[in-house]
Amino acid sequence: MNEKTKVARLSILSNSSLIIMKLFVGVFTGSVSIVSEAIHSTMDLVAAIIAYFSVKISNKPADEDHPYGHGKVENISGVIEALLIFVASVWIIVEAIKKLLHPEAVESIGIGFIVMFISAAINYFVSNKLYKVAKQEDSIALEADALHLKADVYTSLGVGVGLLLIWITKLHFLDPVVAIIVAIFILKEAFDLLKTAFNPLLDVKLSDSEISIIESTISKFKSVYCDFHDLRTRKSGNIKYIDLHLVFPENMSIKAAHDICDKIEDELETSLRNTEVLIHLESCTHQCLVCEHKENNHIKQKSQE
Question: Where is the Cation efflux protein transmembrane domain (predicted)?
Answer without folding.
Answer: 10-201
